[in-house]
Specification:
alpha+beta; Chitinase A, domain 3; four-stranded antiparallel β-sheet; 23 helices
């Protein structure tokens, strides 16, 4: 548990604001180990956070701490702890976990979160034409849909309007009658529409996209307008429902709302008028206040009126929407979410969204482009020819005739053969069995191969994280040295303090005046199973004069347990002493509980004088103090063995 705590502390957020121009300077040496400014700055800023002010006091304290840390690590290496197989495996396990999260957080998640934050600064109005097709259907049907949209785009070039084509060809029944207009929308779009979101932010106004695939099918998108994001707003409203079929109802409701508006202008309470007149049962008792909202949530008339209010407490004239009349009052505009808030909101969800898969593919392509990636497609084609329909089932077995022909490679040292791919494909039973047998084997193999490339690309990048990312190298140094420090301290301090019975006893004898029981009170707690005041007073009178044994014997008889009794020993200041004096025979006032029909009172049974604790009674404290002494002496011995030298000029240059 203690080791996990140490390693968890070592894994707090990465700090990247290092200053490269001085990072290679040596700040200090501990034995033969040189500590650079970069190493020290990283650990100092990471563990001190906002208090890392580089003041003389702060620097001096942390240099001392880090010196002790490095002394213990030097000792651990001399003890050959870094060669212990179990510890090496433990470190490998930590590295695997860190590498996975580091790579995906840095190259995928953090990038996507920042993208959402940046995109939320702008609202985009778009129109689209949709051709519905099953996103997982046969390639030929998807290609047919894509070509249909390419044809429509060609018609745009020939003079037809986007609105005309949308009305005639779009499969989106909700928007086709208005020329495909989706209105203003903003990031982030729901799962399955990331490519559409990319298009709306990448295109210029009046530009039309190429066909885009979403979970509904294929679209072409036209950007109609862009504006600074409206963000979020909080409003209250007074709402009156109308039946638009009955014209008289609309007129009557309008008159009512006009009179409410006049009253508001005269200074009437918005909250009170909402409680009297609003038909919104969910908000009328709350002053009409709605949850904060952004664009594309309510009717455009409601949204425009709400965001059109300039100052807090401003209110609108009555406006008509699809459901009725509203008078809207501005409550406030919540501040835009910070990067940290958006990350907290989306981090766990984003790995399940299509944007994660898209960004992951982009990362894989980046790894391939920077790693001398090579592949032999003819070897893959040759492998595919060995397959039959059994490839789609768990029964499939790779051909025994497969050789070790090279299939792909990353960098100079990571080669993967056809046989390696076959072993991987064999394990992917779930992936292979999800294909329809009508799907060509070549397409199924491509999907499995793509996953194989992804896995090997990750493996290559993870193997080279230290050389590519200085902060990962620093983090792994912390973990490695943290494990060594833990083991060395365990052997030289913690275990020794617990097992060195002679040394522990000697330490106790030299310091036993430190381990004292302060003056204590033993409190007797009586619970009387009645609220009868006369009976309670009678029992208390007996308890004040006599001990608990005699009192219980007197009132618990004939099979009736009138009294319950327990004792607790406390020091001055304890809550148990409330209502009591710190002296023998002090008795509290009775406390009656009407629900349980029980009564509690307390009595100070005895006062124990100050006394020295035995080694057995004080063992936990003695062991902890003995550990501290052992550690202090250990540090003195380590400094003699591993001389510490501070480079004063470099140290002074760090001060602010």
């Amino acid at each position: 548990m203690l080791k996990q705590l140490i390693l968890t502390v070592l894994a707090i957020i990465f700090i990247n604001n290092v200053q490269a121009q001085s990072d290679s300077d040596v700040l200090m040496t501990v034995g033969d180990d040189k500590v650079t400014v970069g190493e020290f700055r990283y650990i100092y800023e990471k563990n001190n956070g906002k208090t890392a002010d580089y003041s003389e006091a702060s620097l001096g304290e942390y240099v001392d701490l880090y010196t002790k840390f490095k002394l213990k690590v030097a000792k651990a290496r001399d003890m050959k702890l870094d060669t212990i197989v179990a510890l090496q495996k433990e470190l490998d396990g930590y590295r695997t976990q860190l590498a996975n999260s580091f790579l995906t957080d840095r190259e995928v998640v953090d990038k996507l979160i920042k993208e959402i934050v940046d995109r939320k600064k702008q609202d985009v109005r778009i129109s689209h034409i949709l051709v519905k097709v099953n996103a997982k259907g046969p390639n030929n049907l998807q290609e047919k849909a894509r070509k249909k949209l390419l044809n429509l785009k060609q018609q745009l070039k020939e003079g037809k309007t986007f609105e005309q084509l949308a009305k005639e060809y779009s499969d989106d029944k909700n928007t086709k009658d208005r020329g495909g207009d989706l209105g203003f929308i903003t990031a982030s779009l729901p799962d399955g529409f990331y490519e559409l979101e990319n298009a709306m932010y990448d295109l210029d106004v009046n530009e039309v996209s190429d066909p885009i695939k979403t979970k509904l099918g294929f679209h072409i998108v036209k950007v109609v307008d862009k504006r600074e994001a409206r963000g979020m707003i909080e409003v209250a409203h007074i709402f009156k429902k109308v039946d638009k079929i009955k014209k008289g109802n609309i007129n009557a409701t309008k008159k009512t709302m006009d009179s409410i508006y006049v009253a508001l202008q005269a200074g009437a309470s918005f909250d009170k008028l909402a409680s009297i007149h609003s038909d919104d049962k969910n908000t009328k008792t709350k002053g009409g206040v709605l949850p904060a909202f952004g664009i594309a949530v309510f009717d455009s008339q409601f949204e425009d009126a709400a965001f059109g209010l300039k100052d807090d407490a401003d209110f609108s004239a009555p406006i008509l929407t699809s459901v009725g009349y509203h008078i809207i009052k501005k409550i406030g505009s919540p501040k835009p979410q910070t990067l940290a808030q958006v990350k907290l909101q989306f981090k766990d969800k984003i790995v399940k969204y299509d944007r994660y898969e898209s960004s992951q593919k982009e990362m894989i392509e980046k790894i391939k482009s920077t790693s001398q990636f090579r592949e032999k497609r003819n070897a893959l084609a040759k492998f595919t020819k060995t397959l039959d329909e059994s490839f789609y089932s768990y029964k499939w077995q790779p051909s025994k005739l497969l050789g070790d022909d090279l299939l792909l490679a990353f960098g100079p040292n990571q080669d993967e053969s056809v046989k390696d791919f076959a072993k991987y494909a064999k394990k992917q039973t779930r992936l292979r069995s999800q294909f329809d047998k009508s799907k060509p084997l070549s397409e199924a193999v491509e999907v499995v191969y793509s996953e194989f490339v992804k896995e090997k690309a990750y493996a290559y990048e993870q193997a080279n994280l230290e050389s590519k990312y200085p902060e990962f190298k620093s983090l792994m140094r912390e973990y490695r040295e943290g494990i060594l420090l833990f083991e060395a301290t365990k052997i030289n301090v913690w275990d020794k303090a617990n097992t060195d019975t002679v040394g522990l006893y000697k330490f106790y004898e030299q310091n036993k005046s430190m381990y004292i029981f302060e003056e204590q009170a033993t409190i007797g707690k009586y619970i009387v199973n009645t609220n009868d005041e006369k009976k309670v007073k009678k029992i208390m009178k007996c308890a004040k004069k006599h001990n608990s044994e005699k009192t219980l014997k007197r009132f618990n008889k004939d099979g009736v347990e009138m009294l319950e009794y327990s004792e607790v020993t406390v020091e001055p200041g304890s809550k148990e002493l409330v209502g009591l004096d710190f002296k023998k025979k002090s008795i509290s006032q009775p406390v009656y509980d009407k629900n349980s029909k029980k009564t509690l009172f307390k009595k100070v049974v005895k006062i124990s004088p100050t006394r020295r604790k035995s080694l057995k009674e004080a063992r936990g404290y003695v062991v902890a103090d003995y550990q501290d002494q052992l550690e202090r002496q250990w540090i003195i011995d380590l400094k003699k063995r591993y001389p510490v030298k501070i480079n004063d000029s470099v140290y002074n240059s760090l001060k602010k």
